Write the structure tokens for this entry.
Amino acid sequence: MIRVVLPYHLRTIASVSGEVELNVEGPVTQRSVLDALEARYPTLRGTIRDHTTHQRRAFLRFFACEDDLSHESPDALLPDAVASGTEPFLIVGAIAGG
């Protein structure tokens, strides 16, 4: 079971509170976790990744085990602690402004 923590605005869109738990088949990568998340919560499609390119949206970051994985390959394996459900995969809303 993969644990995913969403920022408040995405929890609202998905109508969930707190952490989300997902079953991910095959290798646990950013792509497979996000595919499973969007399959379970279709209202999130296009909010985390672009509909066409599947690129991460500019104001979202991905973290696991205190590491920023935002610029890693979407097909790179996530840490074992995330794959085992010990640690969550975090989707964090970036803050911008001046």
